[in-house]
Amino acid sequence: MERVEFFESNGARIYGALTLPESPEKLPACLLIGGSFPQTRDGNLDNSQTDWFPTPLPERNLFRDQAKILERLGIATFRYDKRGCGQSEGNFNITSLFDLVSDAHMAWQWLQNLPEIDAKRVGVLGQSEGAVIALILAAQDPDIAFYIWQGGIYNNLEQIIKWQAEEFWKSDRAKIDHFKQIVPLMYWIYKQIDDVIASAKRGDSFFQLGDQEWSKNLYQPVLKEHFDNPPSTFVDKVKCPVLILHGELDHNTPSQEALLMQQALLAAGNQTVTTHIFPGLDHSFRRLGDPNEDFVTAMGRPLDPVMPEALTNWLNALLNS
User: Fold this and answer.
1) pLDDT value for 289
2) Which residues are paired to 127 by β-bridges?
3) First-to-last CA distance in the chain?
4) What residue ranges do the domains of the chain occupy?
5) Burial, 147: exposed, middle or buried (Cβ in 10 Å; 0-12, 13-18, 19+)?
6) For the segment 60-75, what is each residue's pLDDT rounded down to a tens digit?
7) Is residue 70 within 8 Å of 315, Cβ to Cβ?
8) Cα dist. 245→136, 192, 248, 263, 274 in Å?
9) SS3 per-residue string spanning the chain
10) Long-range Cβ pairs for the range 18-23 (8 Å, 24+)
């Protein structure tokens, strides 16, 4: 069963989809936390935000698919539209990292307190930037039952953006021009990378991206908060079981980040860490036909079955132990 629900966070109603398997007993549950930029509950970029995405981008439905996978395991899920996205209230254009962390924590508390849910068996799953947000929650709250990282980062976001830009400019001219047309936001971040980073570090409120054809006032506090709070600083406080999932051909966050996260968790004394780096898969766990294929083109493909298999096996073992 799936129904639309909302929770209150910092003066806004945040809407999402609650999926509840049929069961006479209280259910384990997982909160799904989305990645960077405007995103909807199903794990899609919010095409209604045309100032961000002037060209509609493919729907990957990652979280919708994962909610169905977890439902078959008897696990409830809640996935939500980020602040100012989809049905949710608020203004995403002035939303910072710790606004998103606060929203996620309120979502987790709301889910934990539902009468159908076993409050002691509620975990978090984050994709990309959502993996960072979920990591912060797992570090802050010892009651979180498990943490699932999908395509996250360990190092400072500044290093990751510079890596992305360096890799992007290695592409052939046709691919660069195509990317400029379909995702001008990312093209101009890479084009103006040094100025974007310097602006965030100065504490500017906004940075003007683009040119006469496309432009966007980028809210800089979200970048500064990322730069000032790298994921590596939270790792030693995460004591719950952790599952790390990453695509080997992830062009958004290098797969070495997953290995660094695993090593840091183990070094901090967390011995319940499982890592899968999937050959041939990208940031959204789609199989690439060409190792250099861009992630937007691959979004329209189905979720590769090796990832759900690893997720299912880990959750079954964890919840039935």
Assistant:
1) 85
2) 150
3) 26
4) 2-155+230-319, 159-224
5) buried
6) 999 999 999 999 999 9
7) yes
8) 17, 31, 10, 14, 9
9) CEEEEEEEECCEEEEEEEECCCCCCCEEEEEEECCCCCECCCCCECCCCCCCCCCCCCCCCHHHHHHHHHHHCCCEEEEECCCCCCCCCCCHHHCCHHHHHHHHHHHHHHHHCCCCEEEEEEEEEEECHHHHHHHHHHHHCCCCCCEEEECCCCCCHHHHHHHHHHHHCCCCHHHHHHHHHHCHHHHHHHHCHHHHHHHHHHCCCEEEEECCCCEEEEECHHHHHHHHCCHHHCHHHCCCCEEEEEECCCCCCCCHHHHHHHHHHHHCCCCCEEEEEECCECCCCCECCCCCCCHHHHCCCCCCCHHHHHHHHHHHHHHCC
10) 18/76, 18/77, 18/78, 18/111, 18/114, 19/67, 19/68, 19/70, 19/71, 19/76, 19/77, 19/78, 20/76, 20/116, 21/71, 21/72, 21/73, 21/74, 21/75, 21/76, 23/74
Instruction: Pick the closest to residue 152 from 286, 12, 36 (CA basis).
Output: 36
CA 196 – CA 180 distance, rounded (Å): 17
One-letter amino acid identity for 164? Answer: Q
- pLDDT tens digits for 196-238? 999 999 999 999 999 999 999 999 999 999 999 999 999 999 9
Cα angle for residues 138, 139, 143 (degrees, 5° grid): 50
Is the Cα dihedral 33, 36, 42, 46 positive or negative?
positive
Q: Which CATH superfamily is domain 2-155+230-319 in?
A: Alpha/Beta hydrolase fold, catalytic domain (3.40.50.1820)
Strand order across the beta sheet in which 76-80 lies = 2-9, 12-19, 76-80, 27-33, 117-127, 147-150, 242-247, 273-278
The whole model's pTM is what? 0.96
